[in-house]
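User: I'm curious whether this sequence folds into something compact or stays loose and floppy. Could you predict its structure so I can see for myself?
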Amino acid sequence: MWETISKDQILRDIVTSVAIVIVSFLVAKIVGVLISAFRGKIIQRAPIELGNRMLELLARFGRRLIVIIGLYLAVHQLSRILSPSIFRVVDGALYIAVVFIIVLFIIDLTNTLMRWYSQRLEEKNQVFVSREFLPLFDKIVKIALIFIAAIFILKHFNQDVGSLIVSLGVGSLAIALAAQSTLANMIAGFTILIDRPFRVGDRIMLASGEIGDVYEIGMRSTKVLTFDNTLIIVPNAEIVKEKVTNLSYPDPKIRVVVEVGVAYGSDVELVKKLLQEAAQSHPKVLDDPPPAAYLINFGDSSLDFRLICRIANFMEQW
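Assistant: Here's the prediction. I'll summarize afterward.
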């Protein structure tokens, strides 16, 4: 091949190739300097820590991509000099490098956004989301990116990816069928996260009639702590399908009902008055609405009264 090309042409191709590489490194350096110079103006619209991290990632990605593009152009400038086999190897290596840089940038970007979002969730006391759902989402994104990158690389080298996709599809279907209940609970967990029918600390009543405080909302189940200090573990799929009463929403006020029996012959109005006064004298009972007492039943051996009042916080019910 060298015999059909003049020495001057070979020299020009080599010089041009070297110049392209040098220029690409200079441009990459300039891009980094420009991003740093405009950092203050760019991050005004985003949180400072997140903005700084995003700019660092963008600058690093830009520098790497510009250098790889420069090397790619330089290699193509030498295509008349290099043998076809060497050219294909170098060209393939540069293509893999470009795919690797793009995948690495997306992974770093995802990790940065997830860390920032995780901190925000923990500030809102949604620790279960940051500890269980976000790591799962992070793994899914990484696996998907690696799979897509592998397909692009194989197609670049003229490899058949159809059989690979079919095999992975069949394998994924088998896994999904085997873990059907687990996936159902995980999807229900996402539904609880988005719909937010209750939060950690809320007092709820399950469809079974059991009452307790939400202790933890996990990826597969929700834990409820009852008044007997026992922990009820309910699969998320069941909670989504069944009726759940949130006793803490929209505010923590709760009605307290007390039933009292007195002997026959007692003064009904006096009993009502005494019950109301007893409730009003309690420091945790609200004045609005005022406590009320009613005669509700003539029992076998007593007059049955019901006292109704409200307290400010359901945690002080007992």
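Summary: The mean pLDDT is 79. The chain has three domains: 2-178, 199-246, 254-316.
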